[in-house]
């Protein structure tokens, strides 16, 4: 069983990497990119029966730093 | 005064930290991250700079969950002293011993230079040998030193005198140019600049010396 965790900087936390990507897209001639936020995706291979609550605990304890990041869990 | 310098895979300022503490008169043990206990009579734990665990996931995140960090948190909760420099500061925010987090530098570049550092408070064992407003000359070397905390946390740090050092120039995007902060009891200091790299004439500055000398002096008499 696979789970996918999306970790993003929270709104209100400046994302200098996203800002640099936005700038580079503009330099390539892509107009109309009004914002870029860069995050990460973590794929977990889990034993059957692992619950979303357990994955949530993994996020809280390690995968995300909730001071600056939010997370979203995708499970089948 | 007895100090423990923690070594993670990827630490690279551990030896400098030990040298600076010994020069100030401390008795120093170097402790490996897989140990789950500190020497019983340790007064100060120093978490050095470097790239613990290759900065994987987030800077300091893996180190903060290593066995020795549980002992460090317990030491701090008992009122013990902890100094985290650079990656050590990142580890301290990841453990929750200090509030906020360190983001990628606003300019996206690794910053490696000597910077002017303002002493914001002398009300701690780390800073009481300085004069408030003193401008020190101390090196920084980091990619993720952009201090972030929400407005409420920043106001709390400011109002309770917990900002230890700030950059006297805009360096990396840190909110309020914060370079180092203290815990509520003043016994845990995290800072991005490297005082252990400013303790010898050959370093070009000895402004970091007083931090170690003051700390060792205070803890020796405590």
Automatic annotation (TrEMBL), chain A:
Keywords: ATP-binding, Cytoplasm, Ligase, Nucleotide-binding, Purine biosynthesis. The keyword Cytoplasm applies. Its EC number is 6.3.5.3. Pfam families: PurS. InterPro entries: PurS, PurS-like_sf. Gene3D superfamilies: Phosphoribosylformylglycinamidine synthase subunit PurS (3.30.1280.10). GO terms for cellular component: cytoplasm. It catalyses: N(2)-formyl-N(1)-(5-phospho-beta-D-ribosyl)glycinamide + L-glutamine + ATP + H2O = 2-formamido-N(1)-(5-O-phospho-beta-D-ribosyl)acetamidine + L-glutamate + ADP + phosphate + H(+). GO terms for biological process: 'de novo' IMP biosynthetic process. It is an enzyme of class 6 (ligase). Part of the phosphoribosylformylglycinamidine synthase complex involved in the purines biosynthetic pathway. Catalyzes the ATP-dependent conversion of formylglycinamide ribonucleotide (FGAR) and glutamine to yield formylglycinamidine ribonucleotide (FGAM) and glutamate. The FGAM synthase complex is composed of three subunits. PurQ produces an ammonia molecule by converting glutamine to glutamate. PurL transfers the ammonia molecule to FGAR to form FGAM in an ATP-dependent manner. Belongs to the PurS family. Part of the FGAM synthase complex composed of 1 PurL, 1 PurQ and 2 PurS subunits. This is Phosphoribosylformylglycinamidine synthase subunit PurS. The gene is purS.
UniProtKB/TrEMBL annotation, chain B:
GO terms for biological process: 'de novo' IMP biosynthetic process. One of its GO terms (molecular function) is phosphoribosylformylglycinamidine synthase activity. InterPro entries: Class_I_gatase-like, PRibForGlyAmidine_synth_PurQ. It comes from Thalassorhabdomicrobium marinisediminis. SMART domains: GATase_5. The gene is purQ. It comes from the Bacteria. Gene3D superfamilies: 3.40.50.880. It is found in: Cytoplasm. This is Phosphoribosylformylglycinamidine synthase subunit PurQ. It catalyses: L-glutamine + H2O = L-glutamate + NH4(+); N(2)-formyl-N(1)-(5-phospho-beta-D-ribosyl)glycinamide + L-glutamine + ATP + H2O = 2-formamido-N(1)-(5-O-phospho-beta-D-ribosyl)acetamidine + L-glutamate + ADP + phosphate + H(+). Keywords: ATP-binding, Cytoplasm, Glutamine amidotransferase, Hydrolase, Ligase, Nucleotide-binding, Purine biosynthesis. The lineage of its organism: Bacteria, Pseudomonadati, Pseudomonadota, Alphaproteobacteria, Rhodobacterales. One of its GO terms (cellular component) is cytoplasm. Part of the phosphoribosylformylglycinamidine synthase complex involved in the purines biosynthetic pathway. Catalyzes the ATP-dependent conversion of formylglycinamide ribonucleotide (FGAR) and glutamine to yield formylglycinamidine ribonucleotide (FGAM) and glutamate. The FGAM synthase complex is composed of three subunits. PurQ produces an ammonia molecule by converting glutamine to glutamate. PurL transfers the ammonia molecule to FGAR to form FGAM in an ATP-dependent manner. Its EC number is 6.3.5.3, 3.5.1.2.
